[in-house]
Amino acid sequence: MNRFSPSGEPLLGDQGFEVADVPSFEIVRRLGVASPLVLCLPAELLKAPPSEAICELMRETTTVVGPFALERADEAREWLSMGAHYALFLPPANLGIGAECPPAAKPLAEVVRAAAAEVAIPAERMMLLVDVPALENAAALARFQADIESLAAPAGSGCYECCKKETCGAVSGVCVVVPPGTSEKIEADLLGVLGPLAARDRLQVFLGGLSMLTSSAQPSSVGHLHHSFAIHALGAATLAEEANVATPAGGFVGAPPVAVVELPAAAASLYALFAAPALELGPAVAACVRTDRSDGLFPTLVLEADGAALGLVYSSTQSIGAALRCGRGVYWSRSRSSLWRKGDTSGAWQTLRRIQLDCDADALCFTVTQHGIPPAFCHKTSLSCWGQPTGLHALQLTLFARKASAPPGSYTKRLFDDATLLRNKLVEEAQELAEATEPDHVAAEAADLIYFAMVRCVAAGVGLPQISSHLDRRALKLERRPGHSKASRIAAGDAILSEAKGKAGAAPASTGALVGASTGAGRARWLPVIAFGVYALYFAPGTTLALGQRRVAALLALPSERLWRGIEPLLAVEYPEGTFYEPHFDFFGGGGGSDKLSEPAFTPPHGSNRFATVIVYLTSAGEPGDGGFVNGHTVFPFAGFVNGSDSLDGVAFAGAVPGAPACSFPAPSTPKAARGMLVQPRRGDAILFYDQRPDGSLDGRARHGSCPVVRGTKRVINVWAWNRDVIYR
């Protein structure tokens, strides 16, 4: 019986913390939430690629898979590449640790290194299964210590967590199994050998079979090993509140199996671990945490699966066990002195992904997936108790919100609805990032590309956690593809860019509409802008304009740090004969040619918007023979309005040029008639006008257009400055 809702929420009993009838896979996943899992599988399974179910388990938990024969180390490569963190190997039959080596035999560490090198498995991904031999005398103990020392990292080399060659020995760690009936003295000797190696981060040590672990299965014994020796307890575990209650896991060390799998003879010592009493995982984890609080609680940081900090809470031994049993975020309420299962009243419940201890073992970290509408951890209905998220986390939330419900005119909504536009923007922004050189420019272009990439991800229902998961999985791969560029993809990208540069009637980066005249004589084109040197812009042979973002920033008195963040990339526009630009606003929220002059979502103090426009003329209005054009003036129909915030509803237009509404003024007979303004383009001149007033309101007098070009070609550069960082809605 699958006790999960369609949305993935666990369906629990009256107490809310039952594990009965929960799928075996989910039980094993929860066992791996707070500690590594050792997956002991039969040889025939290890020879084949891992199943999809096991791959999913390896993605969700830290796993040690084995036991593999060292002579066939190549079988472990695929498992490691598919997500296993470590491969557990059996030592050679003739080289038992602590045993006397044959005269001609090579040292154990040398054999291990040679086997790993032959199949290119890094030492930091290897662990060795160690059966404790009979240590009857000091000589046997010395041999055992020497063999273990040879496997460990050199003294003073650093910690295994760094995963560097110089901080790892022949293997990353050992799984040591103490045989039943071992005396307390020998157990103490073992701890004396293994403890210093683990405490100094020279070797990970998983130790099972100790009498303190097998006799009564007390969680305090796990805490003693952790605090005193930095050693991990190895054995069977359960989520149930009563020890020895079997939970089905089918061959996993970490939960008592229903049927013990057939293991190689060299791994027979592991059977003793299956037969021992199972430790309840929750109290065992709690025993590893230190606290100096009088109430015995543990400070607990709660993180989203994408790494965003949600809040600080407190955990107890009881709440840790409850969280593991139900797979949800469960904490201890200090005000109510009781368990607090997040979301029971608010609906903002959590799926528990991981429990970690910090390096001093005095604080916990719960990694969760936050659910709810909205997904809020804070009682103020925000995701985090530390205010609104920023950066990628904020972008992700905004995009998912836009996907669910977007405001009118949303550019993000347009991208969701137009897959071709989104594809083209991804190609375009990738090229701009590749060509950027200045550090802040690189950062700005990367931000643009990340925005469009995240739109693509959210459109497919993918968020940062899934992306992070793939990055983590790729880091575990042992083989890397050459990484050469793909000629077919380069050609496809070039075709998209060429089409975008020369496509007739391309959509402008403005809120207006660029159209052809009724004569159909031609359409305007967007030109490529190549920036280099001191931002000189080259548009055609012999036509150079030494003006760029720095000049515009100086003109607007923008600080240098806002050079790339506050000014959009320069845009060149070409008007062939017969083209014009309809009246429009450059700011967002004005509805293009409509008369809505204020939408709070896009105006200060609520959001970013364009506040100033600079138009630079590259050609002059004159005779085409002089490289200029006829007509094509820039028109401001409402420049004479006393109060530009007045509604423009009902204002009629009288065409100054027949068939060219862009060159029109309000009809003299209308109540709001006013004298407009025409600007005659002249090469080298620039005009500056503001789209917002000082108080942030949108200025209706900024409505402008371009009169039709009768003959010749008009070329301009458009520059837009923002009151805050440039954003895409």
From TrEMBL:
Its cofactor is L-ascorbate. GO terms for biological process: L-histidine biosynthetic process. One of its GO terms (molecular function) is oxidoreductase activity, acting on paired donors, with incorporation or reduction of molecular oxygen. It catalyses: 1-(5-phospho-beta-D-ribosyl)-5'-AMP + H2O = 1-(5-phospho-beta-D-ribosyl)-5-[(5-phospho-beta-D-ribosylamino)methylideneamino]imidazole-4-carboxamide; 1-(5-phospho-beta-D-ribosyl)-ATP + H2O = 1-(5-phospho-beta-D-ribosyl)-5'-AMP + diphosphate + H(+). Pathway: Amino-acid biosynthesis; L-histidine biosynthesis; L-histidine from 5-phospho-alpha-D-ribose 1-diphosphate: step 3/9; Amino-acid biosynthesis; L-histidine biosynthesis; L-histidine from 5-phospho-alpha-D-ribose 1-diphosphate: step 2/9. InterPro entries: HisE, PRib-ATP_PPHydrolase-like, PRib_AMP_CycHydrolase_dom, PRib_AMP_CycHydrolase_sf, Pro_4_hyd_alph, Pro_4_hyd_alph_FE2OG_OXY. Pfam families: 2OG-FeII_Oxy_3, PRA-CH, PRA-PH. Residues 447-722 form the Prolyl 4-hydroxylase alpha subunit domain. It comes from the Eukaryota. Keywords: Amino-acid biosynthesis, ATP-binding, Dioxygenase, Histidine biosynthesis, Hydrolase, Multifunctional enzyme, Nucleotide-binding, Oxidoreductase. This is Histidine biosynthesis trifunctional-protein.
